[in-house]
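Weekly modeling sync, notes
Attendees: S.R. (lead), two postdocs, one rotation student

Agenda item 3: backlog of single-chain predictions. S.R. asked that every request posted to the team notebook include the full sequence so nobody has to chase files. The rotation student volunteered to paste the first one in as an example of the format we agreed on. Action items at the bottom.

Example entry:
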Amino acid sequence: MNRLAASALALFLIPWPSLHAQNAAIDELKGKIFDARMAQQTFANGLKYCNELNGKSFYYQLRNRILNLEEYLHSLENLAKAEVYNPEKRRPWTLQDVKERWEEVKKQAQADKEKCEFVRSLEKRLEELQKTTAASDKKQ
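Predicted structure, as returned to the notebook:
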């Protein structure tokens, strides 16, 4: 009897390939859903500008608008030349401040582009699934 119980227990502990593949797919989908929710929370207003977020501009959340990277760099340089007060550093803007901020917004522009591409891919996948479902419903 103990052998039978041990054998039955062993069957449940053996990872079945199909079950493992399903769990991996579920985990991957859960990860994508989590990423989408985070993007929605932090980037919801920026989604309407996705056509413009191509890596050459970024979404400026405080003003709810898109800023061109090159124009933004020129503005930063003008702040440093005019020695305008930088509230973040509590002193006038310097060229080093400009360089640091420039690196930040370049990364933000790339991240914004990736968020939009991610949303587009999810929308495309949803559209494909809806078409497949509609086609299979018609067959039944």
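Discussion: group reviewed the output briefly. The beta strands are 57-60, 65-68, 85-86, 91-92.
Action items: rotation student to repeat for the remaining queue; S.R. to check formatting next week.
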